Every structure is written in C-alpha cells, then in structure tokens.
Amino acid sequence: MKRPMSSRIFDGINVWLLVVISVTMLFPFIYIFSVSFTTLEQYLHSEVLLFPRVWVLDAYRYILGSSTFIHAMWITILVTILGTFVNLLFTCTFAYALTRNMYGQKLMLFLILITLLFSAGIIPTYLVVKATGLLDSIWALILPVAIAPFNLIVVRQFFLNIPNELNEAAVIDGANDLTIFRKIVLPLSKPALAAFCLFYAVTHWNNYFTGILYINNPFYWPIQVILRQLVVQSDSKALTGMDLAMVENPPPPETIQMAAILVATLPILLVYPFLQKHFAKGVMLGSVKG
Predict the structure, then answer these.
(1) Residue 270 to residue 262: CA distance in whole angstroms
(2) What SUPFAM superfamilies does this protein's entry cite (predicted)?
C-alpha cells in the first residue's frame, strides 16, 4: 500500500532527528576513547577530534600499573556482586512475605510507602552506620541500601500477578512457603530478577557518595572515589601516592583521566548483554495489563 508523501516526509525527519541525537550522545564517549589513546603532543596541539593520528597506550599502562587503581577496581567488583546479592535476597524475600496473609501486613506496607516520601537524612544515617560499627568497611556500602522501597513494591506486585492456582497446587502437594518461593515464585520471576539485578548492580558500581561519607581508609575506597579524585579534584597522587611531576615521562593528566573513566565504565557495560534477554520483559513491570 502506497504511503502518502506527508507520512514519508514525517518519517524521514524523525530518522534524521534520531541520528543527530544519537551522534550527539555518542560524541563524548568517542572523545573520551580517543583522548585516552593520544600522545602529549597531539593533545597539547588539539589535534584530536574523532580519532588520534598516533595511537599510544601510555595512559593505560600507567593506570593498570597502579596497585591503587587495581585494588579499587576489585573493591568495587566485590561490593557490586555482594551488594547486588544482598539487595535481591532482601528485596525478594520481603516482597514475598508481603504477598502472604500475615499480621501487620498493611502497617508494614504503610511504613515502606512513608520511606518513599521521607528520609532520615545524611547525619542520622551516618550516626546509625557509625553506631553499628560499619564505618571503614565494605558493609557500609551495602547494608544501608540493602532494600530500595520502590523496587520492593514493584517486585511485590510482580509476585501478586503470579497465578494463585500454582501456590494452591503446591500447598496440596505438601509444599511450605519456602519451597513455593524457591521452586515456583523465583523461577517465574526471572525477568524481574534480571531487571532489578541490573538496576542494583549499576547503582553499586556508580556509587561514590557513600564511599566518601563512610570510608576514611583509602584501602576500602571504591573505584568511583578514585575517579572523583582524578577527574573532579585533579589529584595526580590518587594512583601512585606521588605527583605526576615526580614520575619519569608521565602521560598527560587528561589522558590518564579519560583512560581511568573508560576502564572503570567498561565492566558494567559488559554485564548488560548477559541480562538483555530478560531485561526487556523486566522493564515492563508494573505496566497496565489488559
């Protein structure tokens, strides 16, 4: 069926507009990538637009040769894996409990909704973390954010959409709540688990504020705190403990910053393809169903 000219013009404008927006959004990433591989002379003469004429790995050798950077990466990986597991464990178990008929269920839901509107603030939260002895430990980056109230409500709603006939059949077969949760609810909730696994993992990986707030020992600093010192504070001592002027033939500070950003971003980007199969279904949680 032949489409009218106005419709084809409209589609063409949309395509070109989306292309321009995409290129605009991709340019900063291309620039970071290019600058991280450039030489000092090219950078000083502003010869890098899209790709450098001469490709060098000096910045990557510098940051990957830093024990501080590598250790911070391992701390971040540990916090991301452990924190995501704790988030999913607490969120799913609590959400499942809220789907069962139990005493005080409405009160708990009300208290959860209250936390969406009001928070204790930085100082009371810091005092709680300090009183529980979590300061200067990786648990300070995990336990205070063990459950996200909004995610908890959405996961609970997903559990409620599972046909109750499956639970009734399992009860007739002698299954208890733990067995139903482990063998029926969780397998049917893979899209939800994949979506929130990605959300929690990205949150832990990108989080730097709690590291600044609760971690005074540089040994437990995550990679985002190191990046903050490199990029925002322009602290060249963040990786080696000494100023770049004391290092023989150091790469430009700007290339070090770009290389550190790229290396710190790459691992979390590699996680997405493994969750993509379930992610499209998971992001539709809470949508209206007819």
Answers:
(1) 12
(2) MetI-like
Q: Which residue has the tokens 């710190």?
A: 264
Q: Can you tell me which residue has the tokens 């637009």?
A: 49
Q: How confident is the model at residue 90 (pLDDT cuts 50, 70, 90)?
A: very high
Decide if pLDDT at 288 tops 70. Answer: no
pLDDT at 242 (0 to 100) = 47
How far apart CA 252 and CA 249 sit, in angstroms, is 9
Q: Are 287 and 214 contacting, i.e. CB atoms less than 8 angstroms apart?
A: no
Contacts of 202 (CB under 8 A, 6+ apart): 268
Per-residue pLDDT tens over the stretch 46-70: 666 677 777 888 888 888 888 888 8
Closest by alpha carbon to 229, among 249, 253, 252, 245? 253
- Tokens 């482990």 found at: 182
The DSSP string of 125-174 is HHHHHHHTT-TTSGGGGTGGGS--HHHHHHHHHHHHTS-HHHHHHHHHTT
- At 133-185, the pLDDT tens digits run 989 899 999 998 898 888 898 888 888 888 888 888 888 888 888 888 888 88
Amino acid at position 233, single letter = Q
Q: Mean pLDDT across the stretch 193-213? A: 88
φ, ψ of residue 24 to 5 degrees: the values are: -65, -40
Sign of CA dihedral 132, 137, 141, 147: negative
| Distances in whole angstroms, Cα of residue 274 to Cα of each of 92, 105, 200, 279 | 21, 36, 15, 9
| C-alpha neighbours within 13 Å on the C-beta side of residue 122 | 5
The DSSP code sequence of 67-91 is HHHHHHHHHHHHHHHHHHHHHHHHH
Q: What is the DSSP letter of 48?
A: -
pLDDT-derived band at 83 (thresholds 50, 70, 90) equals very high
Q: Two tokens at 84?
A: 């995501």
